[in-house]
Design a protein that fits this description.
Blueprint (H helix, E strand, L loop, with lengths): L1 H10 L20 H5 L8 H8 L11 E6 L5 H11 L4 H17 L7 E4 L4 H7 L5 H11 L2 E2 L4 E5 L4 H6 L8 E5 L9 E9 L3 H12 L4 E9 L4
Parallel strand pairs: 1-7, 2-3, 2-6, 6-7
Antiparallel strand pairs: 4-5
Helix pairs in contact: 5-7
The structure holds zinc ion (ZN).
Amino acid sequence: MQFLKDIFHIFFPNLCVHCSIPLVTGEKFLCLECNHQVVPIPYDEYHQKMLQSTFYGSAVIEQISSYMYFRKATPSQSLIHALKYRGQEAIGTWLAKRVVKQLQEQHLFESVTAVMPVPLHSRRLKERGYNQVTAFGTVLARTLGVVYLTKVLKRVSTRSSQTILKRFERFSNSDTLFTCEEHALLRDAHILLVDDVITTGATLLNCCEQLYKVGVRKISICTMAYTPKE
Ligand SMILES: [Zn+2]
């Protein structure tokens, strides 16, 4: 059923990505009612602790921001699904604009020197045609006035390359691992890592490990959504 719904939405893009009713002027991606069900995460001490708790004891994260709670069968899941699987790449820009507001109000990520996306595996990138965080990340980089750095951090599938696996340490709980090239823009840098959803944090942690290895000094994180712990 999900497959048929996805096909339907490709032919009729002007429907609410969650409840499929036609959108009216002024509505984008979500109808008014579904939009009200999106729960933004405020930037304050309590929510910083909640987001930071994913990384406690594993990596030091300078600042962290996630736009909304990610919950199954809610508009937040439909937004991410449409962005990843229905070609609705512009959802990334739309979410970034909402984040920019918070970023400017709270003076977030002001000392960041470059924005980097969590990379997709090259095979996945070919299938999808785009990295779902590119639009999101480039808007943030432009707003902060810094470079959007791609290609230095790479994803290597543990299943597809046993040889490469032997050459790099494997991250304990993760199915993938990353490699990072040395780069002048990474030395003593403050990197803002961007991703779609924080779930276990393992992917982001793996990226952090690689970045610290090549001389990055500080890392902050900004994602579209965060899966709350039950
Ligand atoms: Zn709706």
